[in-house]
Amino acid sequence: MKAVYVAVMAAAGIVMAGQAQADEALAKAKNCMSCHAIDKKLVGPAYKDVAAKYKGDKAAPAMLAAKVKAGGKGVWGQIPMPPNNVTEAEAKKLVAWVLSQK
Fold this sequence. Notes:
Layout: H1 2-29, H2 47-53, H3 60-70, H4 88-99
């Protein structure tokens, strides 16, 4: 039984790692990484800082997905984030990935 548990956990880890890589690839494909980085501020905030700011905020995913699509300004400084050419599903996926950063 212990071997089955270990195998299941290992498989889950591989799937989760693959998903995280796919989500990072989406961020790169949509040019998010031109202004953002995971662990340091570029033009926009670091994704780890965004995740920390909105940790536990149940309204954050929907609000941030809307900002990814429509753009926004004023929360992280004076430089606005432009609207992005992403679908609703892509915006939600990107936000879930950003909020998972630690």
